[in-house]
TrEMBL record:
Residues 1-23 form the signal peptide. Transmembrane segments: none annotated. This is ABC transporter substrate-binding protein. PANTHER family: BLR1237 PROTEIN, TRICARBOXYLATE-BINDING PROTEIN.
Length: 325
């Protein structure tokens, strides 16, 4: 066969393959999608993500099945996501911890937040709250600081694992108040708040979504919020900024990500579906109940947020002296 003819056949085969791939992407999804949440069932992220997953499934015409893979500050689930085939059938939840804080908390992170994963859309943001066991002789941040200074190293501070936003917020709290408190990492926020309610733990910081039922039932007391504005569902609770820790702000955020290499048509279709899912009435109702802001974005906007947050949290990690190694 002449060279020109062979080249023509090769070009035709390449075009045919590209057309077939394009058609396959246009048909995506053709089977259920797995959404990896790198935290335990019942945790704040899990509670918020489940109705979003249901709504996302309705938008895409295929079930979106949540798979909880907690452990190591979100690293276990995020690494599993990064290692999944880039076909759009495994997606995940990435947040302030897995996409920003972990990069400076761990010297050898088994994934790169910007190279191993592809951002799809920002989805949620919310404040954290500082809560305490009912028997602790402190009803606000200043009283907690005074008690901790009188009892150095004896006040226990729980968190959702080393390197979590709650852990870092706790380290910042110790730094800002000039106190020495004992950090107690848990595998899940639910385990921590149960121990807090039972009196085995003194204080902890966590997402509103994960601890609100315990606050509402009176099993724990709340001392402050980590956002600069008060939490809508807890309007009587002052912020730490209002309580004398000027400029103290830790606001958690998260969104949908995929393994790197997922075709752009799939990313775009998933992005549009996320934006619609956040408008679902059940999603909006729960977000309002838990004071969660639903904030969709373009993939590029989400990527820019991650790029800006990595150095910001690196500076805060250095300032607080926190380390997961």
């Amino acid at each position: 066969m002449p060279i020109i003819a062979r080249r023509a056949v090769s070009l035709f085969l390449v075009m045919l393959a590209a057309t077939a791939a394009g058609a396959a992407r246009a048909d995506w999804p053709e089977r259920p999608i797995k959404l990896i949440v790198p935290y335990a069932a019942g945790s704040g992220p899990d509670v918020v993500l489940r109705p979003i997953a249901d709504a996302l499934g309705r938008e895409l015409g295929q079930p979106v099945i949540v798979e909880n893979r907690g452990g190591a500050g979100g690293i276990v689930g995020t690494q599993a996501l990064a290692s999944a085939p880039p076909d759009g059938y495994t997606i995940g939840f990435g947040n302030i911890v897995t996409l920003a804080i972990n990069k400076s908390m761990y010297a050898k992170l088994p994934y790169d937040p910007q190279r191993s994963l592809a951002p799809v859309s920002l989805a949620i943001s919310n404040a954290l709250v500082l809560i305490a066991r009912n028997g602790l002789p402190a009803n606000n941040v200043q009283e907690l600081a005074a008690y901790a200074k009188k009892n150095p190293g004896k006040v226990s501070v729980g968190s959702l694992g080393v390197g979590s936003s709650a852990h870092l917020a706790g380290e910042m709290l110790k730094s800002e108040t000039g106190t020495t408190m004992l950090h107690v990492p848990y595998k899940s926020g639910q385990q921590a708040v149960v121990d807090l309610a039972g009196g085995q733990l003194d204080v902890m910081i966590d997402n509103v979504a994960g601890v609100l039922p315990f606050i509402r039932s009176g099993q724990v007391k709340v001392l402050g919020a980590t956002s600069l504005k008060r939490v809508p569902v807890l309007p009587e609770v002052p912020t730490l900024d209002e309580s004398g820790l000027k400029g103290f702000e830790v606001v958690s955020w998260g969104g949908i990500v995929t393994p790197a290499g997922v075709p752009k048509p799939v990313i775009d279709k998933l992005n549009a579906a996320v934006a619609k899912a956040l408008l679902d009435s059940a999603v909006q109702k729960q977000n309002e109940t838990l004071s969660v802001d639903a904030t969709p974005s373009t993939p590029e906007q989400f990527a820019s947020l991650i790029a800006a947050e990595i150095p910001r949290w690196a500076a805060m990690v250095k300032q607080s002296g926190a380390s997961a190694d």
